[in-house]
Amino acid sequence: MAIKIFHTADIHIGMRFNSYPDAVKELLKDARVESIERMVKIANREGCDLFVIAGDLFDKTTGIDKKTQTVVAKHLSRFEGSCVAILPGNHDYHTEMVDLWKSFLSLVDEKVLFLGDEKPYSLQEFGLNATIYPAGCHSKHSDQNNLGWIREEDIDSGLVNIGVGHGALAGISPDLDNQYFNMSIEELESIPVDVWLMGHTHISYPENDKVNNWKVYNPGTPEPDGLDCSHNGNGWVINVHEKDDIQASRITTGKYKFKDEEFYLESIEDYRKIEEFFKEYKDNTIARIRLKGTLDEDAYKHRLQVIKNLEEQIIYLVLEDSDLKIRINSDKIKKEFTQGSFPEQMLIYLQDDEEALQLAYEIISEVRK
Questions:
Q1: H runs (alpha helix) in 78-163
Q2: How far is it, in rounded angstroms, from Cα 262 to Cα 105?
Q3: Taking a C-beta distance cutoff of 8 angstroms, is the pair 357, 347 a contact?
Q4: Which of 203, 168, 205 lies closest to 183, judged by CA?
Q5: Which helix (H) or strand (E) holds 343?
Q6: HSE value, Cβ hemisphere, 13 Å, CA-based, for 357
Q7: Mode of pairing for the β-strands spanning 210-212 and 245-252
Q8: Which residue of 10, 82, 103, 196 is 20 to 30 Å from 73, comparing CA positions?
C-alpha cells in the first residue's frame, strides 16, 4: 500500500518576464523548463513512484511552441517511477477548444496520465494501489471550485486515495474577488481522501520543512518567478506508508533567487550593510534595492561604485534611490548659493532643523531648474 510521491505545481513554462532585459528574460524562461529536469532527477534519487503536477505546468494555453513541448515531454519521460500525473490549472486549463493539451499529450510516453475530467483515475494499471480524484480547471476564472463531484463518490478505503486540486486556498493565497476556484483547508480535509496535492498558491504550505500525517500540501512554484517571491523554489516528497502514517519533506528546487531589499544609509560605512548582505548572492540572483537616508555628498557619490560592483556580481539589479538624499550643510550651501542671497540666508537659518532644511533645499533646487 505504500506510495512515494513527488509533488510540484505552478511551473508556468512559457512565462514571458517582459520587464527584464532580453538576456535575463531568456535565462528565466529557460529556468522554468530546466526545473522539470531538476525535479525529475530529485524524484528519481528519492525513489518516488508517482510524480504529480498539480496545475499550471504551462503559463498559458496558446503560444507554447512545439520545441518547448517536446523538451518538457522528454524531461518527464526520464522519471523512473510508475506514473506522471498532470492536472490542468487555471493558466493551462482544459476544454475541447484548447489545442495545447492535444499537442503536448501526443508527445509524452505511456507513463503520463492527464487528469482532464472529473472522475476517479485508477493507478492500478501503473502498478500502484491508488486512485486519484482530480479537481482541475476548465477556465481561467471561476467562483466555484471543482470539489463537489468528489463528495458524491464512494471512495474505497482499501486504496491510497489522492486528491489533486488547483485553486486558491482560503487564508493562504489572496483571492479577494473569489475568482480562482477558492477552497478552504477545512473543506479539503472533510473529503475522505488520504492526501490533497494542491496547486495555484505560489508559496509552500504547510510552513514546516518536515511534517507527519498532514493532509493538505501545496508546493509553491518550483522556480522563483519575481521580486515578490522570497523562497528558493520548492516541492514536496510525500511518503504514504499507511493511511495514518504519512511523512513529508519539503525539497528546494529553484535555480535563481530574487531579492527585494531596503537599506537605510547615514554614512559611507553603511554601504557595508549592502556588501555584507549580498556576499552570498552571486550570478544566480536578481535584486531590487531601495536606498533611503541622508549622506554627505562624497558618500552619496560613492553609491555609484557600490552599485557598479553589485551589478558585476549578480545577474541583474534594479536600483531605487530617489529617497536617498545629500546631507545639506553650510559648506554645500556656500558652494551652491551666492553669499547674502535669499536662498543662502534661508537655508543657513534652517540648519538646525534637518527635515525643514532638506525640504527647503529641494524646493529651491526645483525652482532653479
A1: 99-105, 148-151
A2: 46
A3: yes
A4: 168
A5: helix 342-349
A6: 19
A7: antiparallel
A8: 196
Contact 223, 59 (CB under 8 A): no
72-102 pLDDT, tens digit each:
999 999 999 999 999 999 999 999 989 999 9
7 versus 327: the higher-pLDDT residue is 7
Query: Cell triple for residue 184?
Result: 478552504
Distance CA 81, CA 126 (A): 9
Instruction: Note whether 163 and 178 are within 8 A (CB).
Output: no
pLDDT in tens, 198-246: 999 999 999 999 999 999 999 999 999 999 999 999 999 999 988 789 9
Residues in the chain: 369
* Residue 199 C-beta-side C-alpha neighbours within 13 Å: 30
* Pair 337, 347: CB distance under 8 Å: yes
The pTM of the whole model exceeds 0.90: yes
Which of helix, strand or coil describes residue 83?
strand
Say which residue the cell 494501489 belongs to. Answer: 129
Q: Please, are residues 225 and 15 in contact by the beta-carbon 8 Å criterion?
A: yes
Report d(CA 120, CA 129) in Å as an integer.
13
Please provide the DSSP assignment of 216-267 as one string. EEB---SS--STT--S--EEEEEEEEETTEEEEEEEE--S-EEEEEEEEESS
> Residue holding cell 535575463?
24
Residue owning grid cell 482530480 = 134
Q: Report residue 72 CA to chain centroid gap.
A: 19
Cell numbers given for 112: 503520463
- Phi, psi torsion values for 143, nearest 5 degrees: -90, 5
